[in-house]
Each structure stands twice: as structure tokens, then as C-alpha cells.
Amino acid sequence: MKVTIIGTGKAGSALAFALKKAGFGINALVGRNYSAAVKIGKKTGCSSVYRKAVQKSIDGSDIILISVEDSNIKSVSGELGRLNIPDNAVILHTSGVFTSGELKIKGVKKANLGSFHPVQTIPFISLSHSRLLEGIYFGIEGGEKALRIMKSMAKKMRSDFLVIPGKAKAEYHLSCVLASNFVISNFYLNSLLSRELGISESKLFRSQKPLLMNTIENIGKYGAVKSITGPVSRGDHETVKLHLGVLHRKYPEFIEYYKSVSGVLLKAAKRKSSKPDFKKLIKLLG
Questions:
Q1: H or E element at residue 114
Q2: Which class is domain 2-164?
Q3: Are 34 and 81 in contact (CB under 8 A)?
Q4: How far is it, in rounded angstroms, from Cα 167 to Cα 141?
Q5: Quick one: CA dihedral 46, 52, 53, 56, positive or negative?
Q6: What's the whole-number mean pLDDT along residues 168-186?
Q7: How many angstroms separate the most distant Cα atoms in the chain?
Q8: Which of 117, 118, 128, 142 could form a disulfide with 96 if both were Cys (CB 3.0 to 4.6 A apart)?
Q9: Which of 45, 65, 86, 67 lies closest to 3 in space, CA to CA?
């Protein structure tokens, strides 16, 4: 099958190499960063590179994959609506939060529209096959034909898929953000604390990596509630009080963040065990 990729940024470039490796033909690339799109085209055997979607960019394509910022999906859909879409072509976007309903393209059946979101963090534009999209999951949603094509795409890329109900797309994306971006917020605060310790950020991370990885393993094996350890799980208000003291003195802007996250942990800790006395901790956290 032949694919046109509109948007050759971080996700679009990774998809170009992954789909090429999986046996798909890269029919055309469309990217505002034209020089980067040309480089990706040369390395994926695609000589048809354009700055915006035009008729030649979609002619002969079985799949039109829109990989642009969420706010630009509607404008790209508008551009496609002025073109003659190939018969039976499937049109997909890679947004994690928006549904296939964002793709309002005249003459294209709802069955042929979908969303194809990689459950992966992609920090840079790919100029080679990074394998970031192998062994992962794709969150897929859309019409009957689109779902069938997306399942095949994921499998051919040696990955798997989760079928997401359209009405729960925001919940799905929230869960992805919690799993990735919220972890980074913790390590941003750690980068500030590393200065107080006189230890480099990288060395502090290396020292805590086994702790992080074992926590992840425990969550996979036992679930979040049974994996809780630390002062909140013990009802240890004295330790939490010391933590808050540090934040009051050094980083007052993070006090509410610490209290909010500790409050979530407290709810989970109560589900794990009713033995600790949480009264003083509840009062401390407000």
C-alpha cells in the first residue's frame, strides 16, 4: 500500500521510516520544513516532496496520514477537501486527544476516517529508522475500514494496538500524559534538588534509575495500589512535614504540587491498607 504523510516533524518522520521498513510505499511527503522533508524523502526512497497538500501529493495513495499539530488538523482537512481524494483511500491523523471526527472531508466516508496515535515519546525528528515505533502500542479509533487498515499497519510495524472508543479519547490521552509528561515534572524538580545536593542531575538520575525501573516493574506485576511505598503509604506525617519544610524554604512554588500528588497517593494508600493512622497526614496535607 502507498502512503502520503502530511507533516514530517517528530511523529511524521518516525512514521515515514517505520512504514517504509514495514513494506509500505512512501508515495509523497508534505512538510513545511521542506529541507527536512527532502532529506527524509531521499532516505525513504520518496522523490515526491511538497510544502503543502496538492493533488499530485495524494494521487495514487491508499493511505493519507496527517501528522501535524492538533490545532492544524482542521486546516489540513480543509486543504484535502478541495482536492480529489483517491477512491477508497483511508485518511488518518495522529492526534492522541482528537477523534476521527476532526476529519471533515467532502466525499470521504466515515468508515474511511481514523486516528492513529503512537503510545510513545518521540523527542526529535528522525533522519533514519529509529525503531521507536517497534514493540509499542498505537491507540486507534475510527470507522470500520480505517480500523482494519490501522490494525494491519501496527502489526506490520511489529507493534500492537488499543481500540479506543471515540467518546473516551480525551481520557485515553490523559492517561498517556500521566504516564510520560507527569514523570518528567518530578525529574524537573529533582534537577533543582540536585544542586542542593552538590550532585549532577545525570548522576542523581543514575542513582535513582533502579528505583524508577523497579517501581515500573512492580506496577506492571501488581498494579498501582499494591506498589505504593514511602512515607505516605506508612502515614508518616513527620517525614512529609520535613519535605514540606524544604519546599517552603527553597521551592514554595511546588508546595501545592507536592500536596496534590501526596493526596492522590493517600487515596491509593487507603485502598491498600487501613492499618496506618492517616489522621495527622490528612491534616498536614489539608
A1: strand 113-118
A2: alpha beta
A3: no
A4: 10
A5: negative
A6: 97
A7: 69
A8: 117
A9: 65
Is the CB of residue 63 less than 8 Å from the CB of residue 145? no
Give the residue carrying C-alpha cell 494491519.
152
- Cell 479506543 identifies what position? 164
Q: Give the C-alpha separation, 180 to 192, whole Å.
A: 19
State the residue for C-alpha cell 529533582: 190
Q: Tell me the per-residue pLDDT of 214-223, one tens digit each, with 9 for 90 and over.
A: 999 999 999 9
The size of the chain, in residues, is 286
Q: Which of 56, 48, 45, 53 is nearest to 72 (CA)?
A: 53
Q: What is the band of 106 on the pLDDT scale with cuts at 50, 70, 90?
A: confident
The grid cell for 226 is: 499494591
Answer yes or no: are the C-beta atoms of 142 and 163 closer than 8 Å: no
**pLDDT of 86 higher than 90:** yes
Is the domain spanning 179-285 CATH 3.40.50? The answer is: no
What is the per-residue pLDDT for 194? 97
Q: What is the pLDDT of residue 274?
A: 83
Q: What letter represents residue 2's amino acid?
A: K
The mean predicted confidence, pLDDT, of the chain is 96
